[in-house]
Amino acid sequence: MSELDIKELLATIASNAKQVNIFTGDHASAPFYEAERSAKQRSKEDVDVEQATRAAMEYVGRLKDMVTPAWEERYMELFKRIFALPQVRLNIGIVGKQQGTTFNRNLVANFVQIMLQEHEIFVPSANPMRMAEKLENNKDHSVKVALGAVPEDKQLKQAVKDIIEESKKIS
Predict the structure, then answer these.
(1) By C-alpha distance, which of 170, 158, 17, 11 is closest to 87?
(2) Residue 79: CA atoms inside 13 Å, Cβ hemisphere, count?
(3) pLDDT tens by residue, 42-85
(4) Residue from 85, 87, 108 nearest 166 by CA
(5) Which of 46, 27, 167, 48 is nearest to 111 (CA)?
(6) At 23, is the secondary structure helix, strand, or coil?
(7) Would you call 17 helix, strand, or coil by DSSP?
């Protein structure tokens, strides 16, 4: 079943719903809002996901000088792989109450925390306060809290850890 077929099936099933929670193949849940959408709206949504992903890539790129030499070449590719996960693509454009952003900044910050816990991707001096300063030019920015937490979704957290483990093998 293609991605378009799945989207059309979901739109049909939830055509009168404002929100439906979807469980992806790896048991991660993702909200699907206002399921009844035209083809034009769906293509705009795809563009929005791509724009959010590009903005998130630029955002994590601000931390490049905190990456260890061993990970310099793999760091951005690691994020590309994480942002390609289906459950991330469904949520990266959902900003919610976050202000001054076009992507789910807290989700991205949670991924940074998972990497920070690996103790080899970022330099030893990297911590949420210093990272908030790099990301937002403000060590007390609200993103500091998200930089200190991991995603609540255990399957998503494990999927990100699996990508990190796979990336460790590539040198």
Answers:
(1) 158
(2) 27
(3) 444 555 889 999 999 999 999 999 999 999 999 999 999 999 99
(4) 85
(5) 167
(6) strand
(7) coil
